[in-house]
Amino acid sequence: MATFLGINLFGLFGQLLVGLINGSFYALLSLGLAIIFGLLKIINFAQGALYMLGAFFAWMALNYMGINYWAALIFVPLAVGLIGILMERFLLRPIANEDHLYSLLLTFGLALMLQGTFTHLFGSSGLSYSIPEELKGGNRLPFMYLPNYRAWIIVASIVVCAGTWYMIEKTKLGAYLRAGTENPQLMQAFGINVPLIVTLTFGFGVGLAGFAGVMAAPVYSVSPDMGSNMLIVVFAIVVIGGMGSIGGAILTGLGMGIVEGLTKYFYPEASTTVIFAVMVIVLLTKPAGLFGKEA
Amino acid sequence: MKISKSAIALVVLGLIAPFILYPVFVMKVLCFALFACAFNLLLGYVGLLSFGHAAFLGTGGYVTGYMMMQTGLTPELGILCGTAAATALGALYGKLAVKREGIYFAMVTLALSQLAFFVYLQAPFTGGEDGMQGVPRGELFGLIDLSDNMNMYYFVFAIFLFGFWLVNRTVHSPFGQILKAIRENEPRAVSLGYNVNDYKWAAFVISSGLAGLAGSTKTLVFQLASLTDAHWHMSGEVVLMTLLGGMGTIFGPLVGAGAVVTIQNYLSGGELGNYIHIIMGLIFVICVLAFRSGIVGEFQKFMKKNFS
Prior knowledge:
Number of helices of chain B: 13
Distance between the termini of chain B: 16 Å
Low-confidence stretches of chain B: none
Oligomer: heterodimer
Mean pLDDT of chain B: 85
Strand content of chain A: under 5%
Distance between the termini of chain A: 51 Å
Largest interface: A-B, 42 and 41 residues
Order of helices and strands of chain B: HHHHHEEEHHHHEHHHH
Radius of gyration of chain B: 19 Å
Strand order of the largest sheet of chain B: 1-4
Low-confidence stretches of chain A: none
Largest sheet of chain B: 2 strands, antiparallel
Shape of chain A: globular
Structural class of chain B: mainly alpha
Number of strands of chain B: 4
Largest sheet of chain A: 2 strands, antiparallel
Radius of gyration of chain A: 19 Å
């Protein structure tokens, strides 16, 4: 067994890998939250429920319609994004001018409804979704065993996160987006359809949760409360990263996954608490979060 | 004048309630009503949405349960310990949370309460997933046997009235006026020279202490302290109670707590149990979209429009 300074490398890298995978999901979910919060000032409490919905959609697509993983990876985020668009258009827009806290409460209510509906339909025990044929198996590296699907999760989510970051921060479309939320009247005067931009942004942020859901289906069990457990951790991550910071959400998401993995190896009892402990430390030293701007 | 009339009505209702309804049910309503009143002090009067109040309810419950089971304290001392612990936690969490505003505040309180939740999940004395069971109710002042439901009821009612009075007293004091000023226009309150964060912090401490009192009392009533009370769903539930009843109104939290507990009791018995979350979520959505002043708020509006 490979050891270094008394550390079992196999175990350590194993936990690091698990951490990195969790971190990929944290990054995808907190990125969605950061987009929706940073640009629309909406705290989307339903993000976790929509992630759960993404996983269930993938499961239902396979079992009821025979749609495979790869197709689901494209269609499910679109479907979840569409649901987000309907949510924004018919539920959130009417209260857009009220206190932002109402959007938090509304989405919380929606999350409860979604979770309740799926518990009612499928029970709370969880379903399994098998890894697609192409990604079965794995590689034996000198210090660890790396299953293909897990490598795929990490690569795919980093690509998606980086692409999203690039689109928002570096392209013209992203500039419109940021300007449209900064000063809607002015953008309207330039002939840009701001309500449409808002709706599409919400749909995109939510679609990311759907994408994460499909990716998660083969590694976690597909169950109605998979989202609510995840959501709270992701909120802590968003607080740590600095709310609304796109890059901060991605880096903190991955970073916290790794921190969690390391804790699981060195002091397992604290692994579920460590992110919240980090949050407290960050709040004490940098109240706006690691990458946030002081409000 | 109007308040005192309704206050008398409340006391009379409270005194006769256990003869009409099942006392344990009314006690449950009173505990949650106290919890909601404490929460409303923050949300309704300072405009701070704490999404972590379950931490204080849970802390009160666990500490009281632990003291009652391990040290043989009398119930009033047990409750005092629970309340003190929740107040201390509130003082600590408040210091961290009041630095941030609005949605940030909600997120910070939520994450802090989750920290408490994981501690209670793993600490050796809490019984983990099973919770603390068989907490004795004990004898009040060493004299009155609380295992009798009627004795227990009037004890709980007295505690509730104390909490309700304290919230009212706070709201209608000069301190409460400043809180309202902060809610209405924080920059102006700052420019008037008030140290806004200190006022928010003080309100947070009072609120968390009362939430702890509610949790402590609840533990005695049900002889059980469990993770449910510390879970973030509970934080959501108290928001729902306040929103449904009418935030920023004196009686709103009471009405809201009564309504939510009644709905839950009604649904959890039968085969409708699965629908609880769906219905709670639906109430949330409807309240936010169409019914933002809550039952009491809408009622007051109606009275104003038609009878004044």
